[in-house]
## 1
Amino acid sequence: MVDTDTKGPQRISLTNTVFEGNNNVYLLDGERTVLVDTGVAVQSIRDELADSLSAYDVSFADIDDIFLTHWHYDHAGLAGEIQAESGANVYVHEADAALVAGDPTAIDAEATLKRRRFDEWAIPEAPRRELEQYLSSAMEIGGERVDVSPIDEGDTFERNGRTIEAIHLPGHAAGLTAYAFAGERGREAFVGDVILPKYTPNVGGADVRVEHPLETYLESLERLINLDLDRAWPGHRAPIDDPAGRAATIIAHHRDRTERVISVLEEHGPADVWTVSAHLFGSLSGIHILHGPGEAYAHLDHLHAGGIVTETDGVYALSESDPSIESLFPANDQ
Ligand SMILES: [Zn+2]
Ligand SMILES: [Zn+2]
């Protein structure tokens, strides 16, 4: 039995290849056996998680609590099965709870909204067909229904001598929640896909339910910077030693991308979301057919909210000859 009251959480890296790849599941073992996130519901990942847990003398049946960072299948997929074996509590933010629960109304509403976005983004028929095929096959990794315990911003949980605090940081997903705790370095948090060490998490396509996705995400990044974390445990890949610095880098990345979107409109004139996406990302396949235009939309929407572009029937045009985006991004000197 690993004493996680004195050691950091155990990071279990699962080798799945869908979405951002290499998901992390975190184990906090002690009086209660706690997992943060679970991995996709496919046999190889199920086996990998079970094997990895057995190295700590833990089986699925031993799990008492599962804290999910968000509803995406690569994080929530195995929660239902583990719950069926163990009776574990499964906590997830209320914005994502119905999707994790497998509530058909919520699933239909999300699918309908996605199709509406595909129309608004002017995704042509062939890539749209490919995307819809991809999404329907991805449903299989969503896993079993879950009896969820919805949580909200500021909720705290006493587990194994630690206080775990839920911090709602939407953007990449509507319910995305970090879980902060006092760790060996100081203030630490499981951050899911709020910040990742290598890639910038998708905004706009990863959860079409998020309104004004870039603005929402930038606010969450600013908030994360202000949390002054000493270490972050992301949903994918290695721990992040300078979470505020990473968040600032991601903000700078989005500022650059916004400038590129403006350049596209300057060079090519008014354009729909799909066309802007093609200029930014070239030709796309699989989930990127969703993530590419989603990202382009997030930036165009942000420019639209700032009065820098106009939108008519899904076509965006620059409204200023010398646009300034300064007011659209948090000022920071990280
Ligand atoms: Zn995600
Ligand atoms: Zn992820």
Note: The radius of gyration is 20 Å.
## 2
Amino acid sequence: MEQKHKDNFNTLYEIARSINSILEPEDLLERVLEIAMTHLSAERGFVILADSNKENGYDVVTMKNFSSQKTSNDYAASSSVVISVLNTGEAVLTFDAPNDERFESSTSIIAQKILSIICVPLKIGERTFGAVYLDSGTMLKEFNDESLKFLTIFGNLAGIAIENAKRYEELRSQNERLKNETGAICLFENIIGKSDNWKKALEIVQRVLDNDVAVLLTGESGTGKELIARAIHDNGARKGLAFVAVNCSAIPETLIESELFGYVRGAFTGANTAKKGLVEVADGGTLFLDEISDLPFLLQSKLLRLLQEKEYRRIGETANRSADIRVVAATNKDLRNEVKKGAFREDLFFRLNVVNIHLPPLRERKEDIPLLAEHFLKRSAKMYKRPVESIHPDAMQMMLVNQWQGNVREFQNVIERAVVLCRGTQLTPNDLVLDVSRHESALPNSMTLEEIERQIIEATLEDLDGNRRRTAEKLGVSLRWLQYRLKEWNKD
Ligand SMILES: Nc1ncnc2c1ncn2[C@@H]1O[C@H](COP(=O)(O)OP(=O)(O)O)[C@@H](O)[C@H]1O
Ligand SMILES: [Mg+2]
């Protein structure tokens, strides 16, 4: 009892602190869920906010451990519980769900072996505006009056914190709108995204438009590097002039010099006529060098010369030619690492990397998913002449929890395919073909939750060379939580 008291107190303290420290509504909701799940040792959970525009009257805003495949079944089971909490403003608790007559109709509770359910209202004063839902196939922590009091205070504290964060977000977006109206941001119509880390990247883009400074775009494949390179060209001083994209990994090593710099007649066997190189074609405009890390070493020095002296030669030529071009390069590799390995010239690296713009992977800008979905949905519907207009909340939820290793490119393909497959006017989970293999794992069911957790954490840590920050990111937990766990297992 003493210890439990202390735990409750600590948890409440932590939530109270979150009120002041986390202002991102999404982060905050995740944190609230994390705290509640940890405290009550729940296996799965989600947070909903009341939303009269939605079919059920609520919107699922964050969830943990609900596998994307089972999503719709899960909701059938939990939906009645959530709706009752929203309507009555009272917490629902059960520790024997299959025999609890309130859930008689929910066969899926039995099918899914849900034993314990806790659902707490989120409140501001008397107004219930959301709920935290937790369930588990095993008995949740021993429960008593003390815990009920705890949960009520928890709901109230979390309620205040969430309301605060929402207000802050409103202020901030109002601020952004004002900025937009004065033309500070939003130059690029076809570039979608309003998440912080995406906007940070765009802000740098804006600053490089009007000068010729060399830009290195970094980011995983499909994050929009080429799109941004074009935007830099189309909105800068060289717009209307040539934009030439060269994929350094697509051209065979033996051809790349002649492709880039051209040749004179008779330069080599078969060179019956002279040929312009892409550098010459791009003269006056922008040369986009994609996958720059694959540029052969010899060509790296020639490119360096072009950047430094603005001079080059066609193959077989003795006189120099000059070119006035802006160079934008892109890579999905860590170029610094290539330099260390001796595969990439350091001087060229510094020349190209005057300004680095890093494009975040889609999984780090999930708040942009609804916007991107709407954008690609409209575009594909038009392109394929399909009557699809909207996306079912369950389908949206699946997209929100997916990992998107292929980033926006993969996302766009999935929506496009879904629009073509879709039979009605709304995309459903069935229309989405996601790579679900990553969500499945064949874990022996004789293991305890903690053992499973430990195995996953250790395997991930090993995968990522012991990098804790990346491990936490990959597992969708906070670094602090991970460190706490490791400490608990004396790995610290
Ligand atoms: N923020 C974005 N808004 C709209 N479309 C995007 C965005 N980012 C990427 N895309 C689209 O995703 C696809 C992949 O982008 P691309 O620029 O080719 O990525 P990368 O060069 O990094 O591999 C393209 O069709 C691009 O138009
Ligand atoms: Mg690309």
Note: The pocket of magnesium ion (ligand 2) is lined by residues 225-226, 290 (CB under 6 Å).
